[in-house]
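Worked Example 4.2. Consider the chain below.
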Amino acid sequence: MTANSLDEAKRAVREQIWSILTAADTAHDASVHGRIPNFKGSEEAATRLATLPVWQGASVVKAVPDKAQLPVRAKALEEGKTVYMAVPKLATLKPFYLLDPATLTVSPVDAANSRIAATIAPTVEVDALRPLDLIVLGSVAVNRNGARIGKGAGYSDIEFALLSEAGLVTAETAIVTTVHALQVTGIPIPTAEHDVSVDLIVTPEEVITCATAHRPTGIHWADLTAEKIAAIPSLAARSVA
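Applying the procedure from the previous section yields the following structure tokens:
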């Protein structure tokens, strides 16, 4: 499958799932199209995640900044876990916010809000992060084998590649997504070598263990355009190192 046909196949899956979610009135936002769905039940999914051994044993969490995962970020901070959250579009040389519960000047719920975090949290370089116990991804669609797709920008995969190449992701690092049950699909999800899959899917009602999760081991430069590399300073710095 060519890169263009892969992109088209992924886009078709996204559109199907966005339409299904819209018809079922599953999101808090007026529209789910073009974004990671802010699904109803995200608090319940976060609560379910917090019952799992992989969560309870984690002290360092990397989480996406999407609204759907705000309850996960807030719960992590409430429980004293260190949270790293990506700067939007990885647009700075220090591409992660450091949310340290020991130094927060606002409540965990406020700190977990990506807009507030941008005003109170320091940013850190990839190499300054601590090794990660748990990675929380947002998804548009995911299947029971762990294959997932996001909204199409590719930032979660790039973040993972940067962290993996820096040695911050180990075989023990759990990769999780929280989603609405309708986002768990039987529709085939096309994937490329750079795509990250998940070990666990957590919905408000269930926990799904995925047996065949795929983890890229580093940056797949051939899959990145010159424009994408130039737009992400931490990638650009590595491309000339």
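The mean pLDDT is 93. The chain has nine helices and ten strands. Compare this with Example 4.1 before moving on.
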